[in-house]
Amino acid sequence: MQNPEGYFKIITYGCQMNQRDSEMMADLLEAAGYEPVAELEAADVIILDTCCVREKAENKVYGQLGQLERLKSARPELIITVAGCMVQQPGAAEKIRRQAPYVDLLLGTHNLTELPQLIAEVRETRQSRVAVQEEAGPVREDLPRRRARGSQAFVTITYGCNNYCSYCIVPYVRGPERSRQPEDILEEIMELAAQGVTEVTLLGQNVNSYGRDLGKDIDFAGLLKKVNEVEQLRRIRYMTSHPRDFTPELIKTLAGLEKVCEHVHLPVQAGSNRILELMNRGYSREYYLELVASLRRYIPGVSLTTDLIVGFPGEKEEDFAATLDLVAKVQYDNAFTFMYSPRKGTVAASLPDQLPLEIKKERLKRLMELQNQISLTKNEALVGEEIEVLVEGPSKTDPTKVSGRTRTNKLVIFPGGPELTGRYVKVKLTKAQTWLLKGELVGG
Ligand code: SAH
Ligand code: SF4
Ligand code: F3S
Q: Is 313 a member of any domain?
């Protein structure tokens, strides 16, 4: 075999969109003759694929950059790239260069595909480069053929977001919503299925509005019907669904498609109508609760998860109490809870009455205590059941065990070897914890 051009390492922050972008960059680099390595020390090119949805996400990147400074001074030929959402914010490239002048390459979210070309230029000229295009270009379908990584795969169906929730930076750093053509999505899924993928997760900031910009007779429900027909697939997941765009027709479609999993991630963000309005979410708590009831009516056993923000500007104790009340009413299987983090350039960042950190912390703690109790109770109710699990691989904490997920997206850990990876097995659930279930194998 030929010597590689060099070795690369990508560190990914943020959401599944970024995971997918990182895979795409890895495919591009491999097509250009680079090989991946696990160890930072062994890499010739290091790429940080960044997130800026909250301040904490950005701090992690700066922390990592601080550590990379040592590597760079020991090996000046090392190429350090910072890519993705953080770089796309106005003024961010300059800020990153001020804080970490040893960064060689800065890439915005609309320039990721230029990575191999720009690395070659940096290598040749020994000059740093910045590529941050303000506007999103057309959706690219001309990239190298996608390589499957195991039995699961993310497939992007829409890029960007048009919703402008008042707290959120995503529309600014990802551009407007752009749907991929259904034929391109299906072709990618069939290629993945041919390589052994049996579970796909369709990705978008708001998958429910898929197709609206295409001017064709296709919507998310229509797309799901087509994906459901791909023979080798066994499971279809999707995220994220905006509650506002969950039509009764879509619910009925989901319920009728046997491969679509019984799990809906349905971010509610807050339980008070006043705060929902300030957040520009476009629905009321009453609407949301009805939607939940309808999902449960049509999809028996459906699991529900959500995202919640505490400490939005002007959130009063009574608003927060409404969030607690909604969480208690819905009984989510799981929830991702966040302290509001002001993002420069968003509407909410300039609202009056920003809350002090202590109040946010205290509310977050109360919310998590409530949800943890609910999560545990929900998991306990499953003990004794035998359930289908897709094995994802060896457990991270115990090599004699494997972990996998149920159709309802519950994490299950049970004794077993790595040969089970990628298989659908039946597991008897024996013990419940807040975040996972333990069990034992009963059959293949
Ligand atoms: N498109 C998805 C979510 C994308 S961001 C959706 O609409 O649901 C993931 C989560 O981060 C959001 O659901 C929200 O709960 C949280 N989030 C976004 N901006 C935030 C901010 N400024 N502060 C705290 N949490 C935020
Ligand atoms: Fe952000 Fe709202 Fe778009 Fe989700 S729907 S990415 S929260 S603006
Ligand atoms: Fe995702 Fe973070 Fe960007 S949540 S879209 S990686 S800002």
A: no
> What sections of 307-353 are H helices per DSSP?
317-330
Domain holding 154, by residue range, is: 146-261
Ligand 3: nearest atom to the Cα of 86: 7
Q: Under DSSP, is residue 15 helix (H, G, I), strand (E, B) or coil?
A: coil
Which two structure tokens, joined as six digits, stand for 339? Answer: 């302290």
On whether both 29 and 126 belong to a single domain, the answer is yes
Are both 156 and 232 inside the same structural domain? yes
Domain shared by 108 and 176, yes or no: no
Q: Alpha-carbon distance 102 to 81, whole Å?
A: 10
Q: Which of 237, 261, 285 is the last residue of a domain?
A: 261
Least distant ligand from the CA of 336: 1
> In terms of domains, do 25 and 96 share one?
yes
Q: What is the pLDDT of residues 317-345, one digit of tens each?
A: 999 999 999 999 999 999 999 999 999 99
Asked whether residue 18 falls in the same domain as residue 111, the answer is yes
pTM of the model: 0.96
Tell whether 279 is covered by a domain.
no
Q: What gap in Å lies between CA 22 and CA 112, rounded to an integer?
A: 9
Ligand 1 centroid to residue 239 C-alpha, Å: 13
Task: Indicate if ligand 1 lies below 6 Å from the C-beta of 266.
Answer: no
Residue 200 CA to residue 227 CA, distance in Å, equals: 9
**Distance separating alpha carbons of residues 417 and 26, to the nearest angstrom:** 28
* Residue 432 alpha carbon to ligand 2 centre in Å: 33
Domain count for the chain, please give it.
3
- Which residues, in sequence order, are CB contacts of 118 under 8 Å at separation 6+? 105, 107, 129, 131
- Which residues are within 8 A (CB) of 159 and not within 5 positions of it... i.e. 6 or more apart? 136, 139, 174, 175, 177, 178, 180, 204
The pLDDT tens digits of the residues spanning 201-222 come to 999 999 999 999 999 999 999 9
